Amino acid sequence: MLTAALVVAGLAALLHVYIFVMESLTWTSPRTRATFGLSAEEAEATKELAFNQGFYNLFLAVVTGIGVGAALAGHGAVGAALVLAGVGSMLAAALVLLVSSPDKARAAVTQGVLPLIAVLLMGIQLVTA
Description:
Elements (H helix, E strand, L loop, with lengths): L1 H24 L4 H7 L3 H6 L1 H26 L3 H25 L4 H24 L1
InterPro entries: DUF1304
Organism: Mycobacterium adipatum
Protein name: Epimerase
């Protein structure tokens, strides 16, 4: 169960690195604008906010990645704590997006499914260990 939790957490971290790239590095590009449904004007007006938000996603991915690494290195308690902090925050952010902007349900599900699965698998691991 631990291996599955770490793999899914790693995938969630990779997804959040990709979100970081879109929000912080390619926000005004046509492809990213299409992904987020933004006009060129909207993207330009929100560029600074997106840049900052992208780093939040990157930091969640880093915490999760360090947790996966710690768990693989035999530091189970530290690894589990960091993984749960990272993916738990990803899941909470997805829930906030869903509640605050129901029209963005697809994006919320996209960014929240892997963290949800990782939280559940890690919880099962911790209960059965």
